[in-house]
Amino acid sequence: MEYAIETFSLTKVFSDWWGRDKVVAVDELNLRVCYNEVFGLLGPNGSGKTTTLKLLLGLLYPTKGRAVVLGGDGADPKINARIGFLPEESYLYTYLNARETLDFYGRLFDLPAKVRKMRIEALLDMVGLKAVANRAVGTFSKGMARRIGLAQALINDPDLLILDEPTAGLDPIGTRQIKDLILKLAERGKTILLCSHLLADVEDVCDRIAILYGGRIVASGEVEDLLLRTDKKQITTGAISDAAIERIKQLIQDEHAQCEVTSPMDKLEAFFIKTVVTAQEQDQPTSGAVSTTQIGDFLVSTATENILDKLVSAPLSQETSPEKLKQEQVVPAESSESKPDKDLLSKLTESAEPVRPRSLIQDEKVKTEPVQPETVEQEQIKKSILDQLTGRSAEGQEHRGQTEEDKPRSGGESCA
Q1: How many CB atoms lie within 10 A of CB 90?
Q2: Could you give the C-alpha distances from 33 to 43, 285, 366, in angstroms and in order?
Q3: Beta strand pairing status for 64-69 and 3-15?
Q4: In this structure, are residues 129 and 147 in contact, taking their beta carbons and an 8 Å threshold?
Q5: Angle, alpha carbons 89-67-85 (nearest 5°)
Q6: Which residues of the chain, if any, have pLDDT below 70?
Q7: How many CB atoms within 10 Å of residue 185?
């Protein structure tokens, strides 16, 4: 196969409950990624990047078209065993430590124990987690989780590496390490498909890029070709003739200085924004986010300031008129600095009766008195009641005993 990844009119439409078309995430996508290259898939939020990756891996079924990955179907276990995937969010077992996590994924690929152990130690050292290899993954920060996620994507030594936001949450040092690692993997013959919003990272490592908008490719090609500007020279002048350039070179050489005339290049970030703005100006449909420039202008306009002024200067109550409120706001300087606003406190307290706890209200209704010592008469009454109760129970027992003894036995009379 000439291409490691090739799609043919790949389309994914998400439907609603009734089966009607709701969101067109990927629309007639024709993508080609060569072997042994680093390819960057870019686009704003909701442009279809993650959906495309899931279609390539067989995690989603296309509505129309098909995708060929490493000469076969990405859902085929034989093809899938040659792919390493780092999702946008690292879904790891929080109770496993770093070594156990990599060992778990190594067992999924049926790696022998010796190979698994060797690769685990090498990967932990590579991503800088060897010192915390025995810590539970649930205690890792986001950047550390991304590092262990990248390690699990490389545990099977894949031919194709698909990375979705690999540097998200990483510090600058970790970002530089990941970019150096991507370049080293490309030197080893790996094919890497990279999705990222950090355009400077993509510019540093990618050979070719494609920008998606509304599920379609609006720009693609080599990074240098897309960013190279031929309308200007590096001397920050307009387009001039070759003869003028030769005269300029001669003038610089007369000053005993080096001169190199090249065409300037735009930054990838500037080219990316210009491409997306052009797609938005053409009213291309998209299910993702759009530019929020108009909303930002509205928030800083005078209309919003007037609304905020009205909200801040609203009266405290509906009964208070604006004239009365102005009069109440005029307070002498001495009283405002040294004494509290008694009028305001009195208004607040007069508005409603103070709410008291329920326990206090009950205490007012039921007044408790101290316990008085028992008198002699009360003790005699209690004693007589106990005697009566115990006397009745004793009489009842005697009565039961007599009836049982006096009762004639039917067996004895028959014998007599």
Answers
A1: 20
A2: 17, 25, 86
A3: antiparallel
A4: yes
A5: 25
A6: 1, 19-21, 233-234, 269, 284-377, 389-416
A7: 18
Question: Which helix H or strand E contains 64, and what residues bound it?
Answer: strand 64-69
Instruction: Look at the alpha carbons of 304, 305, 306, 309 in this order and tell me if their dihedral is positive or negative.
Output: positive
Is residue 107 within 8 Å of residue 117, measured between CB atoms? Answer: no
Give, rounded to a whole angstrom, the gap between the first and last alpha carbons of the chain: 121
Does residue 133 sit in helix, strand or coil?
A: coil
Residue 97, phi then psi, degrees to nearest 5: -85, 180
Distances (CA, A) of 238 to 67, 233, 245, 283: 45, 7, 11, 33
Rg (CA), the chain: 42
8 Å CB contact between 111 and 189: no
Q: Confirm if 191 and 175 have CB atoms less than 8 A apart.
A: no
As given in the structure block, the two tokens for residue 208 are 């070719």
Give the amino acid at 289. A
Phi, psi of 163 (to 5 degrees): -120, 125
> What is the DSSP annotation of 356-395?
--HHHHHHHHS---PPPPP-HHHHHHHHHHHHHHHHHHHH
Which one, of 253, 141, 138, 268, lies nearest residue 198 by Cα? Answer: 268
**CA 57, CA 83: separation in Å to the nearest integer?**
9
Which of 69, 80, 84 is CA-nearest to residue 181?
Answer: 84
Residue found under tokens 């060929």: 68
- Cα–Cα separations (whole angstroms), residue 75 to 9, 15, 194, 236: 18, 22, 19, 52
If DSSP states are collapsed to H, E and C, what string results for 149-206?
HHHHHCCCCCCEEEEECCCCCCCHHHHHHHHHHHHHHHHCCCEEEEECCCHHHHHHHC
Bridge partners of residue 152, in order along the sequence: none
Contact 211, 268 (CB under 8 A): no
Report the candidate in 160, 159, 196 with the shortest Cα–Cα distance to residue 178: 196
- Where is 238: in which H helix or E strand? none
Helix (DSSP H) and strand (DSSP E) numbers for the chain:
18, 10
pTM over 0.90: no
Structure tokens at 291: 């530019």
Give per-residue pLDDT as tens, 62-97.
999 999 999 888 888 889 889 999 988 878 888 999
Give the position of tokens 């007639």.
28
> Do 206 and 223 form a contact (C-beta atoms < 8 A)?
yes
